[in-house]
Amino acid sequence: MPKRKSNMKTQLMKLIFSTVAMLTLVVGGAASAKAQEPLPSWNDGPAKQAILAFVKEVTDNKSNPKYVAPEDRIATFDQDGTLWVEHPMYTQVMYCLERVPSLVEKKPELKNIEPFKSVLSGNREAMAKLPMKDLEKILAATLTGMSVDQFSAEVKEWLATAKHPRWDRLYTELTYQPMQEVLQYLRANGFKTYIVTGGGQDFVRVYAERVYGIPPEQVVGTMGGTKYGYEKDGKPFLTKEPKLLLNDNNAGKPEGIHLMIGRRPYAAFGNSPGDRQMLEYTKAGDGPRLAMLVLHDDAKREYAYGPAQGLPDTKVGTFTQALYDEATKNGWTVISMKNDWKRIFAFEN
Amino acid sequence: MPKRKSNMKTQLMKLIFSTVAMLTLVVGGAASAKAQEPLPSWNDGPAKQAILAFVKEVTDNKSNPKYVAPEDRIATFDQDGTLWVEHPMYTQVMYCLERVPSLVEKKPELKNIEPFKSVLSGNREAMAKLPMKDLEKILAATLTGMSVDQFSAEVKEWLATAKHPRWDRLYTELTYQPMQEVLQYLRANGFKTYIVTGGGQDFVRVYAERVYGIPPEQVVGTMGGTKYGYEKDGKPFLTKEPKLLLNDNNAGKPEGIHLMIGRRPYAAFGNSPGDRQMLEYTKAGDGPRLAMLVLHDDAKREYAYGPAQGLPDTKVGTFTQALYDEATKNGWTVISMKNDWKRIFAFEN
Question: Does pTM surpass 0.90?
Fold first, then answer.
């Protein structure tokens, strides 16, 4: 009997210790999560505060009328100039231009035809000045006419080696660390994060999951048609067609959001007039909505363009004075890269 | 001292009891989950076994080469005839026909114009015989030309009262309980479930979340364009335009899947030739893929149409002999409603 009693005691003590260990783990976990403040690459200021206040308001208290149910928590992000560098040229345009030599190899008849001839000459200045209709010819020729799988493989291969001329780093390294933190912070608070880009939907999907943690089905972009067909052995495949379904810029952004998501976002982030309608549409919803614009005002660490600098419009989407005025009028928060961001890139110290 | 010792003992006993209570909850929860076998409305047979074996294969063991990462677990479901009743007419077509009187009220000039005149006469037989081009006119007139919010509100209102003539029940009650269980079972195993329907994307989105647990962004359907504009007070809104972006039938299904999801499904469910390409595309992927076809062979509990009955093709998507042959050839599993399903609807005993 005493033996048995002692055994029982040992069992009980083990149980107690394991309980205490469990409690320690739980409490310790909560403490370490608290120690990691959100948005560490942001300086304290109105932009950071706007994000924190918005998230608190929509998630904190179910009985608050401003509370937003988890399934409705949609946040949309423009890509070029909002999540990563868009200067001196959109990454996708760089890709298309650099694909021209291998395109001409397969179709030598293009060699002496404009705009392919100019691109082959390698004159970057001439390329930068290509009129839109020539650029569209190059985009159509390099982004369509192959299977979706072949296209993905080609983009993936290019991204593994192509580098930005200024930083001599892969384009996928040139994402803004503070915006990566916003993506993570929103997701940690139950938001589904989407990219809503003027860039090609299929192009961005190749790297969005790896680079931003955003899966292909959460990338909304300029959409081209595909065509279902069969290989000789009967295996089905999809070919990228030169047919535009939706230009996901300007009014196309809310239209693309309705098409692909079917819900109005609660938060939207952009940087150029191409994002204006997305921000308007987001803000026009009931309850608390967050609309933010990234202002490129940091010539030293990145680039400065737009109204704060009095710079002329450049070829890439420019944050114009008119957009700045609309932001002020509509309660959109402007993010100053210079003042709001402690660092721009993850590779900085 | 004895007092204190006794207090400590009480504290310890409380701790033990709460631990035991916690353990009981955990173990009890697991036991009750086990007691709830998956797919309870399915009879044991090859169809149920195919689903269980597929899910086990792709989720069971990470080191198994057939294991599928959670982010890749995509399952697509046709709606009409696969998830709910499609006879005697697609629900959406019923909706459009029943909208005609209120449409004519707003546009009296349509009153004496075909096909609106025929529809107003209320002759169901004549309506059932409307040629496709007339049906398209009715669809365009009743599905477009209003804001997306107004459209959703109208559909919601209609669904709250419109009833199926045979069962005298709301259309949304006529979902197949065994398929609801497949949706739940796949989701419980990490799958994202999508509807991929020939029906209107915006129409199905109105009820898909409530009826199937499928959110709007996971509804792929026939897609129309929208147009961004402003109300007099400056508030932006989207208008449904009579512009077809994608007919999500036949080859349109894999094209729509690529557009909206950007990944090939691992499992696909259909019931008609309109689903053929979706099933082919799914099956053509690497590794284990599940393709299933619902065969309507239960005239008593639902309807019988298609090859098993030697019935002629009807207006709604029909499981043809050719499809049956392709299923056999390609290793698709045919679900017999009569033999594989214990019950068809949730309201049955």
Answer: no
